[in-house]
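Handout, section B. The chain below has 380 residues.
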Amino acid sequence: MAKPAFNYRRVLFVHAHPDDESLSTGHVIADRMAAGADVMVLTLTRGERGKMKLVELKSLEGNLSAMGAFRTNELINALKEFNQGEAKVLHRFAGTRAYLDSGLRINALGKPAKPKELDEMALAAVTTSVIADDVIRAINDFRPEAVVTYNANGGYGHPDHKAAFEGTALALRKYAKAHNGKAPKFWVVAEPGERFDMTIGNESTTEVRKAAISAHASQVILTAETFAVAPTQEHRFDDPDRLRLIRRPSFWLPARKILGGLWGLPLGLLLAVAGTLLHRVHTSGVDQIPIGLIVALLMTGSLGLGLRLLRSSLGALYLMTLAFYVSIWYFANGRPNNPLILGDALGNGWAFGSVALLAVIILFPRLRPKTWSKSASGHR
């Protein structure tokens, strides 16, 4: 199979925040503008929850409108660096919905994750099909030959980047369906260690990329040869952009978030089996402490709380609880040698105690892990 080329005359770039266009695809935009191509950048948010790298601008953090206005101005200045004479990079924000930057937290495992509380207009809280509608609108207006965005992991895992990928992929599937299979080519930014089909970047594009990234000085740590979004993640300006061609966007994107929680079903079954086997274990002697029942209830509560506190969605907890309830009912259904006997203290304690425990965890209106550290909440 011939290696794909990137010589398109009309290219649409879909990004989540101001600065992403320069950080992730600066070489590609500069290359296409130098070749005389038409370029449009679609930015989905105004970066309202960015973290300022300059001490004198720290007061803007938390003021969403002021932060968004400041970063929009930086974006305008950055895009000017890509212009070639009369040829200018076209730009628009997504529709009239004015998505908000979702922000980012680092979870207990040290991985990027959604903030626990998302307002309804945060990009990561918006349904994929809604984002896709805005991308389709841009495609219909601009008529690109190729569309470029992040990979499925959102680059380093930012939830807004993932939302941009999913919305773009779904948009291209919908567009192809409405146009007899014809749609712009779909390219994503390949991260280090990933397979890629194309590298773009030379001395000329490096100078343009450096100037564009420098226009986002509030968000980037700059040196003469390098830039960094975080102190430990330094990159060179002349590192090329790597792109990978996606030949067919995934067909199950609309159901991806729902299917992503299905692992809760086997977890609920395993919990019911383990607890039912454990609940009759007790210590020897006169007191006969029901240690098995205590461990089973602790295990149930720990898993329920873990899913409620560590997951940004309750879907997996609901599915786990459903599978658990069905399994408990099955084990107590009066068959010969059934492993769960209702009517005695241990059986009632396990069946009704576990069910009540999960119900309380689900129905409790608000849970906040007060001992969560600032680093685990995404503060730096």
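Note. The longest helix spans residues 159-178. Compare this with the example in section A.
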